[in-house]
Amino acid sequence: MRRPLIDWSRLASAAPLLSSVALLALTLLAMHWSAQFLARQSSQLFGRRLQLFLFGLPGTIVHEGSHVIACVLFGHRVHRVKWFDPSATDGALGSVEHSYDASSAYQRVGTIVIGLAPLLAGAAVLLVAAKMLLGVPAAQLADLADVPLWRWALFAYVSLSVGGSMHLSASDVRGTWRGVVTLGVWIAAALLSSLALWWALSQLAPTVWPAHVAPLLRQAATALVRASDVLSGALQLSVVVNVAGALLLFVVRRLVRAVR
Fold first, then answer.
1. Between 15-46 and 214-259, two packed helices, what is the crossing angle to 10 degrees?
2. Which of 108, 114, 127, 195 has the fewest CB atoms within 10 Å of its CB?
3. pLDDT at 196 over 80
4. Contact assessment for residue 115 and residue 172, using Cβ atoms and an 8 Å cutoff
5. Phi, psi at residue 151, to the nearest 5°?
């Protein structure tokens, strides 16, 4: 029987990687929306000015600081950083002005990480706070009941201030388009090169691909799935914290309004 040109059953093994990446993308969107929800509820309860200085200051510093760190990692030149400006007429509490070499594919791809940096940094801060203050994820429910009140209060403050800043501005999203195009070209080139290599080896050396190349690709895919799942888990915890905080603020706001 003639072997088909493409073994679709083997290509189906890429499904875990695709589903993991899709889950990560959806979680990033949920993180963005939940942060906006939390920031809106916080502002409506405390008032715009008090909310900015009480919660916006530390959250904005983390937000802009993540942009700066990502710029440095990807070789972008940072020209000016506005760490916190509550009087800005455009509504942007902070900003990072940077430039990069448009001829460098690495720096263009870096615009993706720079744009998403607030989500990643905010998730990392919430994870560290949960670990240090509450003992999560190792702690059991019984252990959480014994956590001192001041630790819960400090974690709530970190969640409100940092969690509310984990949304992307329009400039954050706009700045990633060149990186998305470049990354898309890289992925397409890698797929086409892999198919061409697979076809050539299947014709010239049929045993090389299944014995040597395919195992390496499976190992790489497994590592990517693990990394994506870990990041998704961190972001999902942040989404839960943000939504829970926003709902709590909503209930408190309703109670305050009823008392008045």
1. 20
2. 195
3. yes
4. yes
5. -70, -40
Residue type, 206: P
Q: Would you say residue 58 lies in a domain?
A: yes
DSSP H or E segment with residue 196: helix 177-204
> Considering the domain boundaries, does residue 144 fall inside one?
yes
DSSP H/E element including 106: helix 105-129
| 159 or 65: which leads in pLDDT | 65
Contacts for 84 with CB less than 8 Å, ≥ 6 apart: 56, 57, 60, 61, 93, 94
**161 belongs to a structural domain:** yes
Residue 98 has pLDDT above 50, yes or no: yes
CB of 29 closer than 8 Å to CB of 79: no
Spatial separation of the C-alpha atoms in residues 105 and 187, rounded to whole Å: 13
Q: Are 14 and 222 in contact (CB under 8 A)?
A: no
What is the distance between the alpha carbons of residues 254 and 150, in angstroms, rounded to a whole number?
25
Residue 243 backbone phi and psi in degrees, to 5? -65, -45
Q: Which domain holds residue 113?
A: 29-259
Buried b (16+ CB within 10 A) or exposed e, 128-150: ebbeebbebeeeeeeeeeeeeee
Report the chain's mean pLDDT, rounded to a whole number: 79
In a domain, 2, yes or no: no
Q: How many CB atoms lie within 10 A of CB 9?
A: 8
The pLDDT value recorded for residue 89 is: 60
